[in-house]
Structure formats: C-alpha cells, structure tokens
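agent> Task received from the user: take the single chain below, predict its 3D structure, and emit structure tokens. No templates, no multimer pairing.
agent> Plan: (1) validate residues, (2) run structure prediction, (3) serialize to tokens, (4) report one or two observations.
agent> Step 1 OK, no nonstandard residues flagged.
tool_call: predict_structure(input=
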Amino acid sequence: MGAILKEKKLSKDLFYFKIVILTTLLVLIISTISWIIDGKNVEINYLISWLLIFSNGIPLTAWFYYLDYKARKENGIKLRKIIFLFPMVSLMILAVFQLYSGNLFKIVNYTYVRGSLVYLAAVSMFSSFFMFLIYINRYRKHLMGRMANVVIMFSIIPIIMGFIQVMLYGVNLLWPSMSLVVLYSFLYVEYGEILKDSLTGFLSRDQLEQHLKYKLRLGKPFSIIMIDMDKFKEVNDTYGHDEGDKALRTFAAIIKHEVKTIDSICRYGGDEFIILLETEEDVSNKVVNRIRQSVNSYNEKDIKPYKLRFSEGHLYIKSKKSLTQILSEVDEEMYRDKKRRKS
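)
tool_result: status=success, residues=343
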C-alpha cells in the first residue's frame, strides 16, 4: 500500500511533453540556421546540414512516446517502445553513412544540394509516421476530445507539409508545421494538466463537466460514480486541516489505484469525487467494491487514529440525458447510500 500512496511530484504527461517541446525546438533551430547559412560557408553549412539529418528523427520518436503514453498510460519497456526508436536510429545511421559516402547531400558552390539517397531519409520518416498511425488506431477509443484532435493534426499536417518539402526543393515546411502542432497540444491539452486539482492531481470540476459533455455527444453508454468521504469534517476538526489534506490524498491514491488509467477521476468538491468509466459495459459496482475493499484493508492497518469511510452512488448511462440530469441522479444515489449508512 505504501507504493500506492506515494505522490508523483511531476506529471508524466508534462514530462513527456517537455521532451517533445525541447526536441522539436532543437530541430527547428538547426533547420533555421541551415537556411540562414546556406550559400555562405562550406564547412559550417556542411556541419549544420549533417546535424539536421542526424537530429531529424529525435522529435518524431519523442512524439511517438508522448502520444503512446496519452493513449495507454502504461509504463515499462515493451516492443512498441523499441519500434518507436526507428525514425531516430535510422536517420542517425544515415547521417553517419553520409560522412563516408556523401550520398545524402553535398555542398556545391557554398550551397546545399541533395544527394541520391536523400529520399531514403524521407521514406524513413514517412514510413515511421504511417507505422505509428496504424498502431495508434488500435487505441483510438482511449483518445478522446482534444487529444484526438492532436492525433489528427499530427497525422495530417506534418505528412502533407513533409511531402511538399520533398517535392519542392528549397521549401522547409515540416518542422514549422510540427511547431504548430506542439503549440496546439499545449493550449488545448497539456494546459489542462496545469488546471488539475493541486491536492490530488485529479481533474477539476470544470474539466470533468467538459469531458462529460463530450461523452454525451458521442451517445455511447458509460458509467459514473460519485463518492463522498463520510465524517471528513470530524478529521479536520479533531486533527487539523493538514491531516485532513493527508486523508484526502490517501483516499485519492486508493481510488486511483483501483480505477483504470483510461478512466477519469475528478475532485468534484472538498471531499467529493466523481469517476467516469470509459467502458461501455456497466462495471461501476465492481469498481466501487474494489475501492471499498482497499479502504477496508487500509483501515485494518491502523496507520491513522481515524478510519477512512465513504458513501457512493453510481449510474449506468445508456439513454440520452442532460449533464444536469446525470449529476443530479448520481448525487441522489450517493445521498441515499449515505442515509443507509447512518441508520
């Protein structure tokens, strides 16, 4: 249980996204320098052009890791993680090969000129794109709303711009277009990470309601659970608000451990939580039972002088309802459970 209750000081979403930003910025800077220096200095032009080929695959691999994490939220080195290294490794190998063969590019009269194997680098990039998109399609149900828009932009814009760049010599559109995707990702996706509840790391009330509206527009069945901590005010009054915050974080960690990573958890109020289950099957009762068993196991350890308790209400939404109706109905279910526990 101790491992469950550890707090993550840095969101993995933001960690992966920072890598995407830094690597994309790196290639964008190198690409800009290569455009400025072209026609001015043979040695520097060659070095910058070589660095551009060597580093071109790094942001793409970073994007693969980032989108894969957003789709699956899983850790560990697996086969797909190795596959995602393909664009970076293949372009690095081609860059090393360039030092011996000179078949990727040449500097003629101070100007960059494509070599016979430059299209091999393009094939490596585009094949990596398509390979990743085939893979991510298997997990498209995990990518919803704004994240789905990022995948669409990542799929279409760089591929189109990269193709134009290959066909029209002297035009550099790939990495500026990727920079726009990065900007969109931050404004509409990762900015949401910053808006999450600071105490638990869960979605804010507004974020959950936006997510619920999206689910309702889809029109597919889903489940929702509302949980309220019982006698939480007594913990605050008896042991202080700092201990109350610790109790909230402990309870939140237990919930998180018992809910799948593709599902959404929200701190809806002070000691009130809402869980949105993405599966179209009604599994809410099973999830509640898992949470209750984990809470009971925690209480049996007598770690604290108080016990964690909660009441819950859950609904299976398979017919068309409004957001207000759903929240009102699950709230009523939760208070019915609370009354039963008091009696």
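agent> Step 4: summary for the user.
The CA atoms of residues 61 and 75 lie 16 Å apart.
agent> Done.
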